[in-house]
Design a protein that fits this description.
This protein has about 475 residues and is α+β, with helices and mostly antiparallel strands. It has four domains: about 20-100, Ubiquitin-like (UB roll) (Roll); about 105-185, Ubiquitin-like (UB roll), CATH 3.10.20.310; about 190-260, membrane protein fhac (Ubiquitin-like (UB roll), Roll), CATH 3.10.20; about 320-460, membrane protein fhac: a member of the omp85/tpsb transporter family (Porin, Beta Barrel). The chain contains seven helices and 20 strands. It has helices spanning about 1-20, 35-45, 55-70, 120-125, 140-155, 205, 220-230; strands at about 25-30, 80-85, 90-100, 105-115, 160-170, 175-185, 190-195, 235-245, 255-260, 265-275, 280-290, 295-305, 310-320, 325-340, 340-355, 360-375, 380-400, 405-415, 425-440, 445-455. It has an eleven-stranded antiparallel beta sheet, with no helix packed on it. A three-stranded mixed beta sheet has the order 1-3-2, with helices on one face. A hairpin with an 8-residue loop joins β2 and β3 (about 90-100). It is elongated, with a radius of gyration of 36 Å. One of its GO terms (cellular component) is cell outer membrane. Keywords: Cell outer membrane, Membrane, Signal, Transmembrane, Transmembrane beta strand.
Length: about 475
């Protein structure tokens, strides 16, 4: 029976404490700006069931306020609590009146750099970010400075770096703080040989994708660029290139190992659609992202509807000297159209040579052949065209897989002359632009513009397309 009474008493205490917690509200006075923000962040760690008017809760609040102020250089605040009488309605208020006190000021920021960091411009630039003598201490600045040193070491290949000493000294009697950092970056690593495992493409093609040379100083952005370039070829389903640290501790020459898996050799896609100009239609495509060890690829597609039938193919041949940015492209197609007052059979073939420039622009020269038999109204013509051209284009975007900003530009010039077998003399200039912008994260605007100029004396012989 006494045991039962004891349990009942504990239960009553718990219920009483919960009831009080639900009726007490904490209010902090005397702080503003960053001080208030930082103290609120510390107080947010206190659970709602801990809120009571007793001394234990006040001690918890006192500690949180002091921690929040200490991080911003205020080590000696005065904190007084005042529990207001219970109001007629609402919760009882516990007020914490805070006087921050005299701040601790920066008295010195000694940072010693050893190893390669002594002459590295990025490390030297960090020294200029230290707070000025006499400014109020912010422990976040000290922590961020140390993180920045570590970040540079990882980014630039100082993989043996270490803090010989790192200390934030506080002299409360003088209200001063002193940085004391001794940092040894060690020797900077260099890129070693790169090997690949699991690739169906010749190794010399992969080696020519490297954005660095063996012996170059390590840069994490170069490693990321290599992973990106390998993925951009379209040859692989997965790509992981990583350093082999265990082989480089003594020599500081960092070999890389790339593990890749081939993309599916054949991909077939089908679809059914409807549009107002051609009605129902069936689409199909067949893609071979790689056909041989040279990285050649093939894409074919067809679209069939009652008034229009289209068959296209594209064959890409990367060049060994730069497989991603330099290549030949052979394209061809057949299109039959019976729409409105136009009947047309069109066969095309084009050979293009592409270069991707470091500026982001892509340029190409091409040679096109086309054979068209078309009837438009009462006019019937058969035309064979053979014409060279040049083209430059650029596509930019921001926002990753769901771009919030982007544009596409394409400019081309084509010229045909009967001197080399074409049926028509003409010159064509075209400009195409697409802009995409996102406003307030919810609204996307897409604008398109296309301008063309055609100069010819025999307009009736020029195919509609």
């Amino acid at each position: 029976m006494p045991h039962i009474r004891q349990l009942c008493w504990v239960s009553l205490l718990c219920l009483s404490s919960s009831a009080v917690a639900a009726n007490v509200r904490l209010k902090v006075e005397g702080l503003s700006g960053e001080l208030e923000k930082n103290v609120r962040a510390q107080l947010s760690t206190i659970q709602s069931d801990e809120v009571t008017p007793d001394r234990r809760f006040r001690a918890r609040v006192d500690d949180a306020i002091r921690e929040g102020l200490k991080a911003l250089g205020y080590y000696e605040p005065t904190i007084k609590f005042d529990l207001l009488p219970p109001p007629a309605k609402g919760r009882q208020v516990l007020i914490a009146r805070v006087t921050p006190g005299q701040p601790v000021l920066i008295g010195g920021t000694e940072v010693i750099l050893r190893g390669g960091a002594r002459t590295d411009k990025d490390y030297l630039a960090l020294l200029k970010t230290r707070p000025a003598i006499g400014t109020v201490l912010n422990q976040g600045d000290y922590d961020n400075f140390k993180k920045s040193l570590t970040s540079v070491s990882l980014r630039k290949g100082y993989f043996d770096s270490e803090f010989v000493k790192s200390q934030l000294g506080i002299a409360l009697g003088r209200h001063q703080a002193f940085w004391d950092i001794d940092y040894d970056s060690g020797e900077r690593y260099r890129f070693g040989p790169v090997t690949f495992e699991g690739s169906q493409i010749r190794d010399e093609y992969l080696q020519n994708l490297l954005p660095f040379k063996e012996g170059d100083e390590y840069e994490s952005k170069d490693l990321a660029e290599l992973n990106r370039r390998l993925s951009a070829t379209g040859w692989f389903n997965s790509v992981v290139v990583a350093p082999e640290f265990e082989k480089s501790r003594k020599t500081k020459i960092l070999p890389l190992k790339g593990v890749v898996s081939p993309r599916t050799e054949n991909t077939i896609e089908t679809g059914v659609g409807y549009s107002t100009d051609v009605g129902p239609r069936v689409k199909a495509s067949w893609k071979k992202p790689w056909m041989n060890s040279y990285g050649h690829s093939l894409t074919t597609s067809t679209s069939i509807s009652a008034p229009e039938q289209v068959l296209d193919f594209s064959y890409k041949m990367p060049l060994l000297k730069n497989p991603l940015e330099q290549y030949y492209l052979v394209q061809g197609g057949f299109k039959r159209t019976d729409l409105n007052d136009t009947e047309q059979d069109s066969t095309t073939l084009a050979v293009s040579r592409y270069w991707d420039l470091s500026s982001g622009w892509q340029r190409a020269i091409n040679l096109r052949w086309s054979f068209d038999h078309f009837t438009q109204g009462n006019v019937t013509n058969t035309t064979m065209l053979f014409y060279p051209g040049v083209m430059i284009s650029r596509t930019r975007s921001r926002g990753g897989l769901m771009p919030t900003w982007g544009d596409s530009q394409r400019y081309s010039v084509d010229y045909s002359n009967t001197a080399w077998g074409s049926d028509v003399d003409f010159s064509v200039l075209q400009a195409q632009n697409v802009w995409s912008r996102t406003v307030y994260d919810r609204h996307r605007f897409v604008m398109r513009a296309q301008v063309g100029w055609l100069a010819t004396a025999e307009i009736e012989k020029v195919p509609r397309e």
